[in-house]
Every structure is written in C-alpha cells, then in structure tokens.
C-alpha cells in the first residue's frame, strides 16, 4: 500500500514536465489580445492604480474590487498557486495534544511534517505546535472541525464526552493490541467505518502512531485488592475511566503536562500515562513509587491525525498521497521507537526505586466484566458505537486465537526462560 502511494506521488509531481508548453504559450497570447481588445477605456483605471490580473485570469469588475484578507491570526493560511508552477505552495498547522518534552509521541507529528516536505520538494509545509500553543490539548478536535487549524495529532478517547465512539479510534479496555489495530484499520473495516463516523464531524482520520500495550499507572499507595480502589482519585480517560468508576474509583481528566503536579500535591492518588520511557521523562517515579501493569484499558492505543475535510479536499492528489504515506511512516516509527526505548527505561525506573506490581486478579476480573456491560449498554443506545464495536470485536475474536498460538506460546516459553535466567 505504501509503495503504491509513493508511486502515485512521484507520478503526480512529475506530470508538469509533460505539459505542451508551446500550446500554452499560444493560448496565453490569444488571451492577452482578447483582454486588450475588451479592456478599452478600462486601461485608464489601471493607470490610476487598479490591480492588473495575471495572464489567464479573468479581470475583476471595477465595481467589485477584491476584499482585503481577514487578519484573524487563527485562520488557516490559504493555498497559493505560483504562476508557472505545476503544484501549489500549501502551508498547514498541526495542533498536537502533547508537550514537546515527550519526544516520541509528540514526535509523530514531526515525522509527518518532515516526510511531507521531502516528498513535495518543500511545497507542502506543515508546522507542528505543542499542546496549548495554538489551542488547549483537549480542544484540538474542535479547532480542526471548525477549520481554525487544518490538522491535529491526538487521541480519540480525549473526546469520549462528545461521543463514546471516538474512543474506539484510540483504545477500549481489553481491546486490540497495536498489531491488531493496524490489521483492523488497514485490512479490515476499521478505517472505512471510522471515516464514516468522523465525516459527521467534518474530519478525515489517519492512524498516526501507537504506544503498544501500556503500563497500568502510578499509585501513591499499594493496591492489594479491589477494595483498595474505593474512593481512589485517578487520572484516566475514556472507557477506562468508566470502568474504574464502577469499581469505586474517582476518575479525573487531566492533560499529560499537568499530571506530575497533581500527583505531587496529592490532588490525585494515581495516574496512568503511557509507559516507562514517557513516564520516566515526566518524573512520576519521584512522587508515586508503585507502578502497576498491565494497562488493560489501553491494549494498543492509537494516536491519530485528524484533518479538516474541506482542507483535505482542496489538496492536490499528489499532496494527499504524500500525507497518507507520511502518516503510515509516523504510525510505524512511533511503535518501533517505544519498543526500543521502553526496555531500558523500565530498568532505570527500577534502579531508582520504582516497585513493579501486577494488578490483582480480582481487579482484572471485575474490570473485564464491567467493560462488557458498559459496551452492551452503549451499543443499545448508540448506533455509531455499535457499528464500530461489533466490527472490532469480530476481528478480535479470531485474531486473539491466532496470536495465542505461535506468538503466545513462544512468548510464554521465553518468559519462563528469563525467570530461570537461561
């Protein structure tokens, strides 16, 4: 798929070399003569300061001069078509939901922007802005929907309150892992069905990264049983928050950059973020020493690019192809980066006093049962959710069986060898 996309891009960018230049030159001459013939006394107006239209364009009527562009700083920059060039110069902005300090997850947008610039000879330029620089981290979807910015890089479950279907674009408790998400999106119904849903919000979506199965959060106190969750204030989004709520916890919605101070001053008792590499960067081990696993509510959380539909439709096909190719690269590279960085990060955390803990079985079982009930209830009243969830669940049921055979068996064996240090 990626090869076809790049071939399409190259073919499109080179097509301007095949334009018959002689015929275009003759056509321009005829247009110039016709313009002079019709202009008549209008030339006097030009001499008085009117704007001369470029060759090949229709002159504007004298009674309706073109209005000056609006100075609003938040408005997207227009697409400009330099005369004599086959492809336009396009300038976009990406509003990220993440701080720059998280180089891997924030870096996914930078990977996209860099590759697009390279594939389009710098003509399609995208500037990346960290969470809060243009709009608040949780306000990026509204900004794209309203065409305040052209694109954002975020997680769908941040918008769980708008429609719980958004969470499926990122992760749901006990859902797909990273490889399964890619399989469902690229070769199952995932991309088709989610785009049908996002179209209702004037958005087109693209997978743009994955963290892999996450850790289960940082706790100031040890969780030994289900009873220890009662009244516990925990930073957690989406369906994970709903499940924890049914278990007696009190979920909190807090952007990544605000988690540390909330933990430090005791405003929350626990928080989940991503995994060892990013969590170490944010310093959670300094204020909460118990690090739980697995992150059963984020089994393969996907980060996505959301693009304003009108802005997307304006792009030349070659630029659309460049965006698709770059998004796929960002998706692949983010997961690979976390797989390379997390193993050494978890070692450093343990060396600094972090205590690893597995969630108790009664917590896992209660969480699983609660999640299934929540999905059934939501499916009964939300047709969008039911359509996507049914597809995801059907894909997962057969995929889990397959992955449990070769990879599951081998993984279990290798873990046993590690435990006996062989």
Strand and helix layout:
Layout: H1 2-14, H2 21-39, H3 42-47, E1 90-96, H4 103-119, E2 124-129, H5 140-145, E3 151-154, H6 178-187, H7 190-198, E4 203-210, E5 218-219, E6 233-235, H8 238-246, E7 250-252, H9 259-264, E8 270-271, H10 276-282, E9 290-293, E10 302-308, H11 309-314, H12 317-351, E11 355-358, H13 361-381, H14 383-404, H15 406-419
Parallel strand pairs: 1-2, 1-3, 6-7, 6-8, 9-11
Antiparallel strand pairs: 3-10, 4-10, 5-8, 5-9
The global form is: globular
Task: Please tally the β strands and state the result.
Answer: 11
The share of residues in helices is 40-55%
Enumerate how many helices there are, as a single number.
15
Low-pLDDT windows of residues: 1-73
How are strands sequenced across the largest beta sheet? 7-6-8-5-9-11
Mean pLDDT equals 85
Succession of helices and strands: HHHEHEHEHHEEEHEHEHEEHHEHHH
| Main sheet: strands, sense, barrel | 6 strands, mixed
End-to-end Cα distance:
41 Å
Instruction: Kindly estimate the percentage of residues that lie in beta strands according to DSSP.
Output: 5-15%
What gyration radius follows from the Cα positions, in whole Å?
26 Å
Structural class: alpha/beta
Protein described:
The protein has helices at residues 2-14, 21-39, 42-47, 103-119, 140-145, 178-187, 190-198, 238-246, 259-264, 276-282, 309-314, 317-351, 361-381, 383-404, 406-419; strands spanning 90-96, 124-129, 151-154, 203-210, 218-219, 233-235, 250-252, 270-271, 290-293, 302-308, 355-358. It is an alpha/beta fold and 422 residues long. The strands form two sheets. Strands 7-6-8-5-9-11 form a six-stranded mixed beta sheet. Strands 2-1-3-10-4 form a five-stranded mixed beta sheet. Strand 1, helix 4 and strand 2 (124-129) form a beta-alpha-beta unit. Helix 1 (2-14) crosses helix 12, helix 4 (103-119) packs antiparallel against helix 12 (317-351) and helix 7 (190-198) packs antiparallel against helix 14. The relative contact order is 0.14.
């Amino acid at each position: 798929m990626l090869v076809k996309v790049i071939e399409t891009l190259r073919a499109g960018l080179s097509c301007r070399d095949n334009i018959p230049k002689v015929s275009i030159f003759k056509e321009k001459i005829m247009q110039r003569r016709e313009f002079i013939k019709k202009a008549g006394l209008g030339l006097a107006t030009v001499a008085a300061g009117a704007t001369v239209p470029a060759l090949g364009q229709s002159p504007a009527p004298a009674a309706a001069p073109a209005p000056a562009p609006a100075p609003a700083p938040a408005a997207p920059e227009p697409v400009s078509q330099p005369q004599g060039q086959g492809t336009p110069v396009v300038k976009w902005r990406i509003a990220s939901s993440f701080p720059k300090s998280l180089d891997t997850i924030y870096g996914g947008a930078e990977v996209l922007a860099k590759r697009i610039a390279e594939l389009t000879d710098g003509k399609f330029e995208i500037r990346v802005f960290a969470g809060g620089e243009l709009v608040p981290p949780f306000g990026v979807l509204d900004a794209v929907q309203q065409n305040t910015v052209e694109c954002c890089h975020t997680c769908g479950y941040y918008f769980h309150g708008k429609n719980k279907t958004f969470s499926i674009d990122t992760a749901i408790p006990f859902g797909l892992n990273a490889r399964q998400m890619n399989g469902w999106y690229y070769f199952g119904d995932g991309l088709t069905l989610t785009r049908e849903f996002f179209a209702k919000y004037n958005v087109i979506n693209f997978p743009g990264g994955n963290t892999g199965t996450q850790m289960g959060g940082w706790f100031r106190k040890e969780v030994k049983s289900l009873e220890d969750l009662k009244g516990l204030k925990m930073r957690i989004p989406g369906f994970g928050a709903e499940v924890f709520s049914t278990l007696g916890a009190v979920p909190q919605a807090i952007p990544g950059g605000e988690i540390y101070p909330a933990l430090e001053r005791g405003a929350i008792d626990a928080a989940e973020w991503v995994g060892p590499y990013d969590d170490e960067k944010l310093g959670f081990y300094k204020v909460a020493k118990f690090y739980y696993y697995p992150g059963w509510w984020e089994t393969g959380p996907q980060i996505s690019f959301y693009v304003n539909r009108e802005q997307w439709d304006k792009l030349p096909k070659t630029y659309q192809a460049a965006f698709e190719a770059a998004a796929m690269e960002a998706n692949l590279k983010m997961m690979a980066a976390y797989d390379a960085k997390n193993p050494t990060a978890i070692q450093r955390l343990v060396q600094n006093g972090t205590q690893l803990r597995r969630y108790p079985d009664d917590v896992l079982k209660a969480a699983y049962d609660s999640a299934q009930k929540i999905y059934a209830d939501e499916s009964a009243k939300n047709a969008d959710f039911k359509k996507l969830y049914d597809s995801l669940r059907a894909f997962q049921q057969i995929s889990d069986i397959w992955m449990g055979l070769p990879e599951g068996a081998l993984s279990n064996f290798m873990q046993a060898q590690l435990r006996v240090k062989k």
